Amino acid sequence: MQHKYFVYITTNKYRTTLYIGFTNNIQNRLSQHYFDSQNAKKSFAGKYGCVYLVYYETFEFPKLGIAREKELKKWRREKKNKLISEFNPKWETLNNEVF
């Protein structure tokens, strides 16, 4: 059985705040971010409304995905913006495109 792991970037509706995460169930994770943004606002993504998926990568092995997540989190904002723009030039919401 082949597993799929995701490193992803979400943003708020104004595209001013970025959240980078790692998961093996991206739809569930996006739902959790949305729920928290509407209710408890305890997580970073929930507090800042980072519920719009704008970037993702898939991995077969979790170790590689976790390493990539850590790498992206160290980047400056300009480099993250460039990565997103190359993948998704209009920064469109991709929530319904990944499964």
The shape is: globular
Strand residues, percent: 15-25%
**How far apart are the termini?**
16 Å
Q: Which class of secondary structure composition applies to the elements?
A: alpha+beta
Tally of discrete structural domains: 1
Helical content stands at: 40-55%
The CATH C-level name is Alpha Beta
User: What's the CATH H-level superfamily name?
Assistant: GIY-YIG endonuclease
Oligomerization status of the protein chains: single chain
Chain-averaged pLDDT? 94
CATH architecture: 3-Layer(aba) Sandwich
| Spatial arrangement of strands, main beta sheet | 2-1-3
Walk me through the structure.
The relative contact order is 0.23. The model has no long low-confidence stretch (mean pLDDT 94). The chain starts with a strand and ends in a 12-residue tail after the last helix. The protein is an alpha+beta fold. It is built from 4 helices and 3 strands. The protein has helices at 26-38, 44-48, 62-74, 77-87, and strands spanning 5-11, 18-23, 52-59. It has a 3-stranded antiparallel β-sheet with strand order 2-1-3, with helices on both faces. InterPro entries: GIY-YIG_endonuc, GIY-YIG_endonuc_sf, UPF0213_domain. This is GIY-YIG nuclease family protein. It comes from Seonamhaeicola sediminis.
